[in-house]
């Protein structure tokens, strides 16, 4: 359904520009959207209904606080959402939050496979902070600054939503280190070096326009905190449990990009995961 939704989103719809064409729906955009809306209503409606049933059977307690859907269902008074608003909020999370996070994680893992030294440094951080006796939890993430730097560096080099990047545009001819950089050139450091964020703390949340992978201002991504906490935790867990290496058959990692609605890896990452050996 996400793929089905992205397709009309990326279509140039003549009816948006020539209102007379709107009712003819020559490109079938309206028809496709209506069909998708029906599917979404059934799919998300079922999730809401399951939560309602669980709540009615006493499923949410002080011990089990429930999930995001339970929070929405628990809103009262002026805050109470209609079913169609709730479906819209939940669908937005699925639609905008699934492939962006998955794609970011794929780029991060590609970088981990390409840079075993950086992977080893992240694993050393995990061993020092978490140890090998238990799994990584949400509470550990704040104590894993190097892994946070890896995520930032990946957002810098491979932003899933490349609206504002860290690239610089030369607005006039310039000389840098003896090289001529002609006006109109875009330039960006190409080395994958998470340490740059240890040297200079740059926020990725939209307050520093040098690096705004979630946008900035009024239209800034509302899912940025969820995206970051999911990514930090999952990447930390993957690195804690496994050593990652290029797939034996495929060889290296192809970093070519493909710009769909998000900036994807043109060649999906294939790699080997070997359980990490227990330290003696
Ligand atoms: C790594 C993951 C993500 C990246 C890189 C990302 C990036 C972005 C960017 C660049 C925008 C456009 C901002 C603008 O128009 O200026 C955006 C918008 C949006 N994002 Fe995210 N996003 C991510 C994850 C998520 C998640 C997890 C959710 C929901 C749970 C989400 C929900 C949205 C929504 C609803 C908008 C539209 C906001 C609007 O137009 O007002 N995103 N995101």
Describe this entry's structure for a reader.
The structure is a single chain. The protein has 280 residues and is mainly alpha-helical. The chain folds into 2 domains: 1-81, no CATH class; 100-280, Cytochrome P450 (Cytochrome p450), CATH 1.10.630. Helix content is 46%, strand content 9%. The chain contains 9 helices and 8 strands. The protein has helices spanning 2-9, 14-17, 29-56, 68-74, 83-114, 116-129, 145-157, 196-199, 224-241; strands at residues 168-169, 174-176, 179-181, 186-187, 242-246, 257-259, 263-265, 271-275. Strands 1-4 form a two-stranded antiparallel ribbon. Strands 2-3 form a two-stranded antiparallel ribbon. Strands 5-8 form a two-stranded antiparallel ribbon. A hairpin with a 2-residue loop joins strand 2 (174-176) and strand 3. Helix 5 (83-114) packs across helix 6 and helix 5 (83-114) crosses helix 9 (224-241). Bound molecules: protoporphyrin IX containing FE (HEM). Residues 92-93, 96-97, 100-101, 104, 160-161, 163, 213-215, 219-223, 226-227 line the site of protoporphyrin IX containing FE.
